[in-house]
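> call design_seq(struct)
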């Protein structure tokens, strides 16, 4: 049984969106402002994270296509 979850955290800067996302087990983070390593080490220094940095939505679309097609 597959229990995947896709969550999008959107809001103003410095409203703890990243911290909330990192609290999920085994999360993957789409990093658009290149702050992920700093925030992760500050709030969750012992946790391992998977992330990728993106500069535009087209690269995100290409990256997500295989994940979305596996359903």
């Amino acid at each position: 049984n597959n229990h995947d979850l896709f969550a999008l955290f959107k809001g103003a800067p410095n409203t703890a969106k990243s911290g909330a996302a990192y609290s999920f087990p085994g999360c993957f983070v789409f990093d658009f402002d290149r702050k992920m390593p700093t925030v992760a080490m500050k709030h969750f220094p012992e946790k391992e994270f998977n992330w990728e940095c993106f500069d535009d939505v087209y690269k995100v679309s290409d990256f997500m296509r295989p994940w979305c097609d596996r359903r």
